[in-house]
Amino acid sequence: MIVVASSIGALLMAIFANYVRMKVAKKPATVKKIILPPVFMSTGAFMFVFPMFRVTWIEAVEAFAVGAIFSILLIKTSNFEIRNNEIFLKRSKAFIIILFGLLFVRIIMKSVLGQYISFGETSGMFFILAFGMILPWRIAMYVSYKRLKEKLDIQLQTDPSSL
Question: What long-range pairs does 49-52 form, CB within 8 A, spacing at least 24?
């Protein structure tokens, strides 16, 4: 029952994440908007204060590595573009498919692992997996944004009339 409830919760969060992404794409990107999500998510690590959520170092590394591998798909579908001398996140039709595909894979993994690992440990591992996805993705977005920002700044310095 808990696995079903958490899966439904994850589905609702994915729908919400897609809605937020569509709204964000309408406004210029900023460093703050790129960096804050993993910072906010990191507060969830307080779950590890409670012994039931703790995992071994090997499990933590494995979960983070799987998340990092999953993040490659998110990185590939998160690109920026310059519009009206501002940087915007490009909309990607593949992003929603990838987001829900990754969610589906995570739900299956959670169901299978939940048979062998306690609910608390599974929760801890999937928090680490999610953090392993968002951290490399946001770092890549930050690097991409900074490169484009430098290009835009050079362009504006050399051609002030483009303002």
Answer: 50/120, 51/120, 52/118, 52/119, 52/120, 52/121
The Cα 150–Cα 142 span in angstroms is 12
Q: Residue for token digits 């990191």?
A: 42
Q: What is the pLDDT of residues 37-82, one digit of tens each?
A: 999 999 999 999 999 999 999 999 999 999 999 999 889 988 999 9
Give me 19's structure tokens.
């809605």
The CA distances from residue 123 to 18, 97, 109, 120, in Å, are: 23, 24, 12, 5
Query: Do the Cβ atoms of 77 and 95 come closer than 8 Å?
Result: yes
Name the residue among 119, 97, 129 with its Cα closest to residue 14.
97
Residue 27 carries which side chain, given as an amino acid letter?
K
Return the DSSP state at 86.
E
Q: What is the pTM of this model?
A: 0.82
